Amino acid sequence: ADHTNGHTDSSLVLPEIKFTKLFINGEFVDSLSGKTFETIDPRNGEVSAKVAEGDKEDVDLAVKAARHAFDHGPWPRMSGSARGRIMMKFADLIDEHAEEIAALDAINAGKLFAFTKMVEIPSVANTLRYYAGAADKIHGEVLKMSREFHGYTLLEPFGVVGHIIPWNFPAMMFFVKVAPALAAGCTMVVKPAEQTPLSALFYAHLAKQAGVPDGVLNIINGYGPTAGAAIASHMDIDKVSFTGSTEVGRKIMQAAALSNLKPVSLELGGKSPVIVFDDADVDAAVDLALLAVCFNKGEICMAGSRVFVQEGIYDEFVQTLAKKAKGWVTGDPFDPRSRLGPQVTKKQFERVLAYIELGKKEGATVLTGGKASGDKGYYIEPTVFTDVKDDMAIAQDEIFGPVMSLMKFKTIEEAIKRANNSKYGLAAGIVTKDLNVANTVSRSIRSGMIWINCYLAFSDDCPYGGYKMSGFGRDAGMDALYKYLQVKTVVTPIYNSPW
Ligand code: ADP
């Protein structure tokens, strides 16, 4: 396949990479060891930048700065509206630089340039605005105690927060964690994924320009087992918020438990079902199912990678799917015709291809795709497997690529049971016109997000997160703001009270 689609003009928007150091206490600095690591352009496998590599000592410095900013700095002490104003300015700066940021994510994470510029970056600016608007509405409750006492609760910023984020949505993952923590008055150390640190460093620069005080937002690039582990086990970090694999989530929780018992929130893997009932409009259902697994080349924790179709429309669904899958063109992320860019790294590319081979070996049938696309870069064709059995690895494991496992079912009870047959519980899709079916299935699926006749529909006020081994705690919405606040109860006696 011609994965470049003849495009020649990507140089027009290729960004200059300005920020490659660590960001500690408001300054870009080299790592103490002087070490760097390379970021790779997934469009061609070439080195795009050399980035400072932080390790434990650098995390220590960042935590010191964050602790000082928390204990003595203005950020937790200023009014919510003052924090909100700075966050609004930060949001405006993001909007002004949307094109440059989108280009960084295209050459660093293989993100579709146009979509990132037009949709993801403006939406993260709005995430900042959502929480900026909440910053002056943080308040506790008055407690009418059953004795002659008066009580109230204070909501205090949690303290120094560590955010460990993945590579699949460098912008969204950054702000879904940083924005509520900023609004709450926390200070923080962020470790972007080692694959995709470039846009995070740009955000640090913009935060400073917007007036976020030094030490409030620190960025440590580096690897998981070194910089990431140092955050998880740090004695002076009060909370860790993590998004990534279930395997790493387990390590983070363990490190937190073994150090200072810091609470963690974990947003982990998924193997989300999409259940299509006989009364569905087949065309629309196929579009929904393809979006669910192909969006962001399947590199999305909420991907709808198990598709259950009721027997009455199964054959028609398969035929329509085979046709429509061709519309999901894999190609250069700067080409507006591309709907899937390259997988983020060689490792992920090889991992997805290995799962495709495993699916074939397990006896599933390849309906579409089933192989890499092009002869350079990490491009994969959207792949649909039919004849999938529930216990096959391709029906149980999170693949994190554009690979759909298609299965047939007879009754609603069977669909519910099989959809819940997963260690994960992040999201689910239901396609039906029958309100009773939609309501019954919504309440029966054990997952943090249910989409009825849509998929991946989000907004800043929609909390999401896991049931079961998809983790716990919620990102987005007001639930996420409360994650970064402590509840303190204050009690005082009332003398001569008539009550
Ligand atoms: P992968 O890159 O294999 O998909 P994850 O998605 O779980 O792994 O990585 C998400 C984030 O977790 C990244 O920022 C990564 O550097 C970090 N990480 C990986 N291993 C650890 C660890 N042992 N402790 C803390 N963070 C880690």
Automatic annotation (TrEMBL):
Query: Which reactions does this protein catalyse?
Result: an aldehyde + NAD(+) + H2O = a carboxylate + NADH + 2 H(+); octanal + NADP(+) + H2O = octanoate + NADPH + 2 H(+)
| InterPro entries reported in the protein's UniProt record | Ald_DH/histidinol_DH (IPR016161), Ald_DH_C (IPR016163), Ald_DH_CS_GLU (IPR029510), Ald_DH_N (IPR016162), Aldehyde_DH_dom (IPR015590)
* Protein name per Swiss-Prot or TrEMBL: Aldehyde dehydrogenase 1
Q: Which family does it belong to?
A: Belongs to the aldehyde dehydrogenase family.
Q: Which GO terms describe its cellular component?
A: mitochondrial matrix
- The organism's superkingdom is given as Eukaryota
- Taxonomic classification: Eukaryota, Viridiplantae, Streptophyta, Embryophyta, Tracheophyta
Q: Which organism is it from?
A: Hypericum calycinum
Provide the assembly information: Homotetramer.
Active-site residues (renumbered): 267
Which Gene Ontology terms cover its molecular function?
Answer: aldehyde dehydrogenase (NAD+) activity
* Signal peptide residues on this chain, from the entry's feature table: none
**Aldehyde dehydrogenase domain spans which residues?**
29-490
Task: Name the coiled-coil region(s).
Answer: none
Record-linked Pfam families: Aldedh
Q: What is its EC number?
A: 1.2.1.3
Keywords on this record?
NAD, Oxidoreductase
Main EC class the enzyme belongs to? oxidoreductase
What SUPFAM superfamilies does its record include? Answer: ALDH-like
Compartments, record wording:
Mitochondrion matrix
Tell whether Ribosomal protein is among the UniProt keywords.
no
